[in-house]
Amino acid sequence: MMSYAGTTTRSRSRSARSDGDSYVAPNGSAPAATEYREQGSIDWARLAAFASGVLVGALAGASAALLTTPLNGPETRDLLARRARRARLRAADSWDDWGYDVRRRARRTGRRARQAFRREA
Q1: Are 76 and 84 in contact (CB under 8 A)?
Q2: I need a surface site. Which of 20, 37, 70, 97 has the fewest CB within 10 A?
Q3: What is the distance between the alpha carbons of residues 48 and 42, in angstroms, rounded to a whole number?
Q4: pLDDT tens, residue by residue, 9-24
Q5: What CA–CA distances, in Å, run from 66 to 19, 52, 56, 62?
Q6: For residue 7, what pLDDT band results from cuts at 50, 70 and 90?
């Protein structure tokens, strides 16, 4: 079975597309006012739809993984608890490392600022 989607010519050049006001819809008509967006503007409705699609896909994948796991219930819960504990410890270590780096850089910047101030004074 074949379907026909109409003509798909690409007669417009890239330079014509880069003009903000010369956009022509693929069917040759001018877009409606609600469809037209300036370059660089964010379409929050489309972004929200994409984010919700990603969330639904992640939930569906996680539930499929849990349903098809070769482990039984207690083993799966134990495995998830161990992995969550390990992730929590890694996150805490990363947070501590980040804090240490920030404090070290702040001390170094303060020392350099004091030295520069002394040289100029």
Answers
A1: no
A2: 70
A3: 11
A4: 555 544 444 445 566 6
A5: 50, 21, 15, 6
A6: low
Domain ranges within the chain, ordered by starting residue: 14-31+45-120
Task: Tell me the H-state helices in 40-72.
Answer: 44-67
Q: Is 5 helix (H, G, I), strand (E, B) or coil?
A: coil
Give tens-digit pLDDT for 67-110. 888 888 889 889 989 999 999 999 999 999 999 999 999 999 99
Query: d(Cα 76, Cα 58) in Å, to the nearest integer?
Result: 19
Q: How far apart are CA 116 and CA 110, in angstroms?
A: 10
Left, alpha or beta for 75 (phi > 0: left; psi -120 to 50: alpha)?
alpha
* Side-chain-side CA neighbours of residue 2 (13 Å): 2
CA dihedral (79, 83, 88, 89) in degrees, to 10, reads 110
